């Protein structure tokens, strides 16, 4: 059995829909980044997965398509994109800030995953790597959540009580197993988890002048 890492940028999120009141609290900060997702942190800063941004991206926020400037796109193995938009627009001046969580999550902790399509809110939890088949690269061990449907790249992973941002989903982990179909060998892929870039890495990548 082999564990693979697959980037994904599908549009459709379809599964558990969270309570309307919980979703409403995230609505102003859920953004679209071209064909993917992102989170508006305030002060004109949008964070998303690095592999979904290129060229001259646009951010869909407050019902408007706003041109964005890429100021960071990937750094080593950190698949994170940081964009800047004009925060002087009237629709944005009314928004507050999204705080980055100071404490890393623990195994089993519940999380909320907020995307754009539909719109949807998903409940998940932090996975213990010992429950994931195959060998998990060490950099993923503490930042796995139970797999959610395709199309989560750039979605925010939030603490359900404090509403701080735990991280940004960048890719999924899949297991490949060999099976027999009509007597013929075939590989079958099972998606088991999503990995997210943690808040501490996000804070490190954002330029100092744009941090809190």
How many β strands by DSSP?
14
The average pLDDT score comes to 78
Poorly predicted tracts of residues: 1-19
The helix content, as a percent range, equals: under 10%
Please write the string of helix (H) and strand (E) elements. Answer: EHEEEEEEEHEEEEEEH
CATH topology description: Thrombin, subunit H
Shape: globular
What number of domains? 1
Query: What CATH architecture label applies?
Result: Beta Barrel
Q: Please identify the structural class as seen in this structure.
A: mainly beta
Give Rg in angstroms.
17 Å
Sheet bearing the most strands, described? 7 strands, antiparallel
Total number of helices: 3
Task: Give the terminus-to-terminus CA distance.
Answer: 44 Å
Which key features would you list for this structure?
212 residues; mainly beta; 7-stranded antiparallel beta sheet; 3 helices; disordered N terminus
Reconstruct the topology from this structure.
Blueprint: E1 2-7, H1 20-26, E2 30-33, E3 36-42, E4 45-49, E5 58-61, E6 64-67, E7 69-75, E8 78-84, H2 90-93, E9 110-114, E10 121-125, E11 144-146, E12 156-158, E13 165-181, E14 184-198, H3 199-205
Antiparallel strand pairs: 1-13, 2-3, 2-5, 3-4, 4-8, 5-6, 7-8, 9-10, 9-12, 11-14, 12-13, 13-14
